[in-house]
Design brief:
Number of strands: 10
Order of helices and strands: HEHHHEEEEEEEHEE
Structural class: alpha+beta
Radius of gyration: 18 Å
Largest sheet: 6 strands, mixed
Distance between the termini: 30 Å
Oligomer: single chain
């Protein structure tokens, strides 16, 4: 019963996102290496669509993805670096040196409908020491995992959103690369919810 309820809660949250115009995909439908936390196909599609007039090339798109993949450091340092790129954009040197440098924005804040919004559950991630973790929900914008959601079943008196918060801390330890790109972490039991950033405490 508990499993059913937690799954039902998970699916009802997915429905809420669908109502807001997000595309819902089950993680087992996405072909990728389990260590990969970016949806590179979405990121490529967004970049090609957004910069088609500039003639962005395959290798230029690949170099943007490589740059995002190669972010490193502590979770905090990596997260800070990613959000500088997300908020400010950056200059991409063109493959053809005679062309003017390209100003790249990874999210189109001016025209939201140009972005690819996706919510995914059952997304298996292989992290430190081959640990496998499956967050209840991840929100991707243009293939970048900006929100992680952990749900607990309100009908089970033995768990609550404190357990959800603790689970998110476990994820930070076991699958740190997911949190390089994280804007918000959410825990909810379907009645109460808490939202914070990678450095937030329970309050």
């Amino acid at each position: 019963m508990a499993n059913f309820n937690e799954h039902a809660l998970e699916m009802s949250i997915m429905e809420l996102f669908k109502d807001e115009g997000y595309t819902y995909v089950s993680g087992d439908q996405i072909h990728r290496e389990r260590t990969e936390v970016l949806l590179t196909d979405d990121l490529k599609q967004y970049l090609y669509n957004r910069y088609v007039k500039d003639g962005i090339t395959t290798s230029e798109v690949d170099s943007v993805i490589l740059m995002l993949r190669n972010i490193s450091g502590t979770i905090y340092e990596a997260n800070k670096a990613v959000f500088k790129l997300l908020c400010d954009g950056f200059i991409l040197n063109r493959e053809d040196r005679t062309q003017k440098d390209l100003y790249i924005e990874l999210i189109d804040f001016d025209t939201p409908e140009n972005n690819i919004f996706k919510v995914v559950n059952q997304f298996e991630i292989e992290g430190v020491n081959n640990q496998l973790r499956i967050p209840d929900g991840i929100v991707f914008v243009n293939g970048i995992p900006v929100v992680v959601i952990e749900l607990k079943n309100a009908t089970n008196e033995e768990v609550d959103i404190v357990d959800g918060f603790n689970q998110l801390q476990t994820y930070k330890r076991d699958i740190p690369s997911l949190f390089y790109y994280n804007a918000f972490m959410i825990t909810s039991d379907g009645i109460n919810a808490k939202v914070g950033t990678i450095t937030s405490d329970l309050d």
